[in-house]
Amino acid sequence: MRGRVHIKISAITTAFIFWFFPFAFFLCTAAHAGTQKSPGSQGSVLSPADDMSGDAFDTFDEFEVKEIREKVSDPLMGYNRFMTKFNDKVYFWFFKPVARAYSFVAPEVVRISVSRFFKNLAWPIRGFNNLLQLKFRCAGIETARFAVNTTVGVAGFFDPARSWLNLCPCPEDFGQTLGHYGVGPGIPLVIPFVGPSNIRDAMGLVPDYYLDPVSYIKDWKTAFAVDTYGRFNTVSLHIGEYEKLREGAVDWYIFMRNAYEQNREKAIGE
Hints:
This protein has one domain (2-34, 74-269). The chain is mainly alpha-helical. The longest helix has 33 residues, at 2-34. Helix 2 (77-105) packs across helix 9 (220-236). The chain is built from eleven helices and two strands, in the order αααααααββαααα. 62% of the residues lie in helices and 3% in strands.
């Protein structure tokens, strides 16, 4: 029975990759071409955090949002607004209370070490995408960081590669790789339990999933528990940041959408 289920899931995944990807590629490119700024238009300015290593709120650590004059194609705005409210409620009613309780049990130094462990574990995502973008120096740095932190840094719970060797992370994902090769963002898309995204970056989640070692844990319950624990640990280190951003936003969905798109555009250009 499990074998049949596994075969069905594999068939669905294969169909998604080989049929949806070409269509989505066309959709992203076409949408990107149709939403290019005119020479006189001005967009908002972001100053994102240097370490885009995957933390839930790293994307919006530090930025200034100015008036946006270009029109954004957002045909899924109704769905996106609903899902933004849904994610907002999930955060305040579930993630934040559990993460806060966890923070009382686990000291901050422990939670920071756990965060380092998960980032070190996700080395294949960063290393492979740096290689795909022909960023060989960054790929080498990521490989060196993984080797040092996995051994001297005790499975990644410590980061001697940064503190001793000044080897800073070079975070890349498949969404950035697609953008690097000219694939436009496509239409905005808010993903349940994840947050703001777009068609291109949603596509990028598929190959990144298969590069994540956690996805290869055979028992799906264990894999789910490990992934969920990592997310709660991340939230526990950023309690209060989401609330501060939300307080200063007139329209929370528009604010998140624009901030995300500008941060991604800057990350792809680096």
